[in-house]
């Protein structure tokens, strides 16, 4: 039975958030960024909206605009229909979260709510967001609000939740984190041109474009803005002198540092004068129309306080209207007349009441958060009102204008009137010349003159200031007049027509082979002279330099590459975990490569089946634009189905035999103009062939590619085919692809930790990362082929095969056991180790499961005849070497390959022939059981699987 409240009999407000995720790119729920909440309805699972008396009415009383939501009905009012029919409160919370964002000015409309399969009362809620912090706050407030609608929360007999107050706090938070009007205008223009952007801090620093094409803006200062020009513009005295030297009209002025100097200069220039800080902004500290020495003495400390250098400018007061001319890239783009903050009398209200009425305009906010700024009443405003013959409590006559500031800055509550098309050409020429003299790419030229439509040199007037990083809102949102779309010339300047803003992105995913394939693709394009940024499980590589050493297969690493100004080509290894955690770290990929979908990582983050895992990896395919390509493994049925999710073209790769169903499908695809990479087999060997339409182009013999070990490493044959298909789709020529694959080897330099072959005192040692059963099958096939080759060339008899294996602790028990079962089919001796990170398991638990799988396979006649457990990785490596003889094949599946390679170099001289039974030359830490029989000689005909011995070294507990 559902839990009920004791007093009313209504359901208890049990809705709560149990998990929160933020997707910052394409994800399994949405192509766009989204918030994901997992909520528990508790007893409310049994109470849809139509069973709670008055719920809909209370909801709409607070958020009446919910009646505009379409919901699944696709028409206005659809959500109200769902409320009347009865919908669950998780779905309602989704719509409330969207509406809360709309109340804050973020027009978000996409959302989805679905019940978690097999978990009654647990729901996945996803909804769009524009600002991450605002989106999260909207979800949290929505849940609290819905709970309060079910039953109002009380504390000490008083309501504990006031939605009006909470909504106001939420809106203020949204305003604090939002871009300013200027930054938002430029970002919106960039988005309209399909230019990607990244917010680099919590303020207004934004990157437009990617990699080598990236530009930066901070408000209206750009990466093209010269620091010298900014310094000059911030020094008003220097600015005036430079403009005067060019013959431009400027007021007479001097820079001073003391009150007495200010009075002296004012007397010399002649009253009235202006006192303003040497390097101020936004009109702060500017005192106008000073009529005598006493006024100058009062104004000096006000101006000095706003001057970072302590200097103050005294200049003659130029009368006229205040105009701001916006110059972008040397051209005048907008002119606005700025009217100081004021109120107009109505014969009814006092000055103070008129200010409150003016500030009630929803367009007015604090600072630059909205298109207009609220008027502030301070001491200067009171004095100015008094100078006009009024007090704040007086009622001015109807139509009487009462000024509250002398400067026309928007930041002090002023308004703007667009005058762009009215300015006289000579005045425009003066403003443009002023911007060129200072050297600013974006400049705000402040004109004081009687009329901008008449030449300033004839009517009188002057340039009072030149501003770096001028605000745009007076032009984009004028109080009176037409808005000017001035973000367009800014973006034109940063990205001229035809300029590129994106770098090519190739993204690689799959259960196995991602790292090697990514490295092959990177190697091909490095050979073309590209500055490649690559992410993988080993780290971030920028132009062949490993800059970060960690697992970098997630979205944060991708964003780091896209921010690097040297990168002109990106290759991303994309892991399942990153997609589930944050989505992709970018908007789209030009080429998506999906290698395979195998049973690994199941049982994690709600992914329990291969089909669900395939949906996760298909996110890359969904992120392919119409002009892009999806490179898909035709031999994998789950990957093959992903073709339906691709908006671009599909490029197949396949190792299937000619005449098979898969090859017939690929042939049909190519006859229709498609692309594919296939394997053609002959007596001479296997040839990788690229098909495009009806053309077939031979690429390379597999046995001539170093990474394939003479064609024995079939997994690298497949990886090479995928890399070739991706490179071909990305625009590389066949010659360059062939050269790249022929020069790519699995040496530690080019492919650290992936199938590295090392000779250690006559032993063939292979270092790899294999950590799941599907990968072990492919590695086992390679071990069998390489083992046969070593046997044929050995003079010491049949070499032994020794494997060191492990898997991650967060895998399912059956998957861990299966790894041991598969390994037992290919190795004579299996040594089980564990990673340093146990991932939720106890020490020795994962190893015990792997060992159990090996033993089960041995009982069924597997090749393996002995299994040892050595938990520490380096100890397991030493033990494997000590268990081996010259000529043996030792395969080390390791996690920390750097330490292992270093260990191999340092200990290889300690390994001795025949040191296989814990004798003097063996592992000093290895102590065999008392009753262990002596190990038979190599190739003993009496050896059978029943002779297998189980050894344990270092198992805790």
From TrEMBL:
GO molecular function: ATP binding; cyanophycin synthetase activity (L-arginine-adding); cyanophycin synthetase activity (L-aspartate-adding); metal ion binding
PANTHER family (alphabetical): CYANOPHYCIN SYNTHETASE, MUR LIGASE FAMILY MEMBER
Biological role stated in the UniProt entry: Catalyzes the ATP-dependent polymerization of arginine and aspartate to multi-L-arginyl-poly-L-aspartic acid (cyanophycin; a water-insoluble reserve polymer).
Compositionally biased spans, kind Acidic residues: 920-934
InterPro entries referenced in this protein's UniProt entry, alphabetically: ATP-grasp, CPAse_ATP-bd, Cya_phycin_syn, Cyanophycin_syn_N, Mur-like_cat_sf, Mur_ligase_C, Mur_ligase_C_dom_sf, Mur_ligase_cen
Gene3D superfamilies, alphabetized: ATP-grasp fold, B domain (3.30.470.20), Mur ligase, C-terminal domain (3.90.190.20), Mur-like, catalytic domain (3.40.1190.10)
Oligomer and partners: Homodimer.
EC class: ligase
Catalysed reactions, as listed in the record: [L-4-(L-arginin-2-N-yl)aspartate](n)-L-aspartate + L-arginine + ATP = [L-4-(L-arginin-2-N-yl)aspartate](n+1) + ADP + phosphate + H(+); [L-4-(L-arginin-2-N-yl)aspartate](n) + L-aspartate + ATP = [L-4-(L-arginin-2-N-yl)aspartate](n)-L-aspartate + ADP + phosphate + H(+)
UniProt name for this protein: Cyanophycin synthetase
Superkingdom per UniProt: Bacteria
Keyword Ligase: yes
Keywords: ATP-binding, Ligase, Nucleotide-binding
Any matching Pfam family: Mur_ligase_C
Family to which this protein belongs: In the C-terminal section; belongs to the MurCDEF family.
Record region (Disordered): 911-946
The enzyme's E.C. designation: 6.3.2.29, 6.3.2.30
Record domain ATP-grasp: where: 240-495
């Amino acid at each position: 039975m559902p839990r009920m409240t004791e007093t009313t009999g209504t359901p208890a407000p049990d809705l709560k958030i149990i998990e929160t995720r933020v997707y910052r790119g394409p994800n399994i729920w949405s192509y766009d960024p989204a918030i994901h909440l997992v909520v528990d309805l508790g007893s409310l699972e049994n109470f849809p909206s139509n069973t709670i008396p008055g719920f809909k009415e209370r909801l709409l009383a607070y958020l009446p605009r919910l009646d505009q939501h379409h919901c699944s009905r696709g028409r206005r009012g659809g959500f109200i229909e769902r409320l009347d029919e009865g919908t669950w409160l998780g779905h309602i919370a989704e719509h409330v979260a969207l509406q809360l964002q709309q109340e804050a000015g973020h027009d978000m409309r996409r959302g989805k709510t679905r019940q978690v399969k097999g978990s009654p009362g647990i729901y996945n809620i996803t909804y769009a967001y524009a600002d991450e912090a605002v989106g999260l706050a909207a979800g949290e407030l929505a849940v609290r609000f819905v709970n309060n609608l079910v039953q109002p929360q009380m504390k000490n007999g008083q309501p504990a939740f006031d939605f009006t107050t909470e909504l106001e706090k939420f809106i203020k938070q949204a305003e604090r984190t939002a871009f300013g009007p200027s930054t938002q205008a430029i970002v919106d223009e960039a988005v309209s041109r399909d230019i990607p952007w990244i917010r680099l801090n919590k303020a207004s620093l934004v990157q437009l474009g990617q990699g080598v094409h990236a530009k930066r803006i901070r408000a209206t200062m750009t990466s093209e803005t010269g620091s010298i020009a900014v310094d000059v513009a911030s020094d008003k005295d220097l600015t005036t002198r430079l403009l005067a030297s060019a013959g431009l009209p400027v007021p007479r002025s001097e820079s001073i540092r003391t009150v007495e100097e200010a009075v002296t200069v004012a007397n010399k220039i002649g009253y009235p004068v202006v006192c303003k800080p040497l390097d101020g902004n936004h009109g702060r500290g500017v005192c106008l129309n000073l009529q005598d020495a006493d006024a100058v003495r009062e104004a000096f400390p006000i101006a000095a306080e706003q001057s970072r250098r302590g200097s103050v400018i005294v200049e003659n007061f130029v009368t006229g209207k205040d105009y701001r001319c916006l110059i972008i890239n040397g051209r005048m783009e907008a002119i606005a007349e700025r009217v100081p903050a004021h109120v107009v009398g109505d014969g009814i209200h006092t000055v103070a009441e008129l200010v409150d009425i003016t500030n009630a305009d929803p367009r007015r906010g604090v600072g630059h958060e909205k298109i207009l700024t609220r008027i502030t009443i301070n001491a200067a405003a009171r004095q100015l009102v008094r100078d006009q013959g009024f007090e704040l409590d007086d009622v001015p006559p109807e139509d009487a204008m009462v000024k509250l500031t002398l400067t026309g800055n928007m930041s002090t509550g002023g308004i703007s009137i667009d005058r762009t098309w009215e300015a006289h050409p000579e005045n425009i020429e003066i403003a443009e010349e002023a911007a060129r003299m200072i050297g600013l790419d974006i400049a705000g030229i402040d004109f004081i003159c009687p009329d901008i439509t008449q030449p300033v040199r004839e009517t009188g007037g002057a340039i009072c200031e030149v501003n770096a990083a001028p605000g745009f809102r007076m032009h984009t949102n004028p109080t009176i007049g037409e808005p000017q779309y001035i973000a367009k010339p800014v973006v034109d300047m940063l990205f001229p027509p035809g300029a590129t803003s994106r770098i090519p992105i190739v993204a690689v995913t799959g259960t196995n082979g991602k790292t090697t394939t990514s490295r092959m693709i990177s190697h091909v394009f490095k050979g073309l002279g590209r500055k490649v940024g690559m992410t993988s499980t080993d780290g971030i590589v920028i132009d062949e330099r490993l800059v970060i050493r960690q697992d970098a297969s997630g979205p944060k690493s991708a964003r780091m590459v896209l921010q690097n100004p040297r990168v002109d080509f990106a290759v991303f290894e994309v892991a399942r975990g990153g997609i589930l955690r944050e989505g992709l770290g970018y908007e789209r990929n030009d080429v998506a490569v999906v290698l395979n979908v195998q049973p690994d990582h199941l049982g994690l983050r709600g992914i329990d089946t291969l089909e669900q895992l395939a949906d996760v990896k298909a996110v890359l395919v969904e992120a392919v634009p119409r002009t892009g390509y999806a490179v898909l493994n035709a031999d994998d049925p789950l990957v093959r189905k992903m073709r339906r999710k691709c908006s671009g073209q599909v490029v197949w790769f396949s190792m299937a035999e000619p005449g098979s169903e898969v090859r017939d499908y690929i042939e049909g695809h190519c006859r229709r103009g498609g692309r594919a990479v296939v394997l053609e087999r002959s007596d001479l060997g296997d040839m990788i062939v690229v098909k495009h339409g009806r053309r077939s182009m031979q690429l390379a013999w597999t046995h001539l590619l170093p990474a394939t070990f003479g064609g024995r490493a079939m997994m690298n044959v497949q990886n090479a085919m995928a890399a070739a298909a991706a490179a071909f789709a990305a625009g590389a020529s066949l010659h360059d692809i062939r050269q790249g694959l022929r020069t790519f080897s699995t040496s530690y330099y080019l492919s650290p930790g992936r199938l590295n072959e090392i000779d250690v005192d006559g032993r063939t040692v292979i270092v790899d990362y294999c950590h799941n059963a599907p990968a072990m099958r492919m590695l086992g096939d390679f071990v069998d082929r390489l083992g046969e080759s070593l046997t044929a060339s050995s003079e010491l008899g049949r070499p032994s095969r020794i494997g060191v294996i492990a898997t991650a602790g967060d895998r399912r028990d059956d998957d861990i056991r299966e790894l041991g079962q598969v390994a037992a089919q290919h190795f004579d001796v299996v040594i089980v180790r564990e990673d340093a990170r146990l991932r939720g398991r106890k020490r020795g638990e994962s190893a015990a499961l792997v060992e159990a799988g090996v033993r089960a396979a041995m009982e069924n006649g597997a090749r393996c005849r002995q299994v040892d457990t050595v938990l520490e990785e380096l100890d397991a490596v030493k033990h494997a070497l000590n268990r081996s003889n010259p000529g043996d094949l030792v395969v080390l599946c390791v996690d920390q390959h750097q330490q292992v390679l270093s260990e191999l170099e340092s200990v290889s001289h300690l390994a001795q022939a025949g040191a296989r039974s814990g004798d003097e030359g063996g592992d000093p830490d290895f102590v065999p059981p008392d009753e262990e029989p002596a190990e038979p000689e190599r190739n003993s005909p009496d050896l059978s699987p029943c002779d297998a011995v189980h050894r344990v070294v270092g198992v805790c507990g």
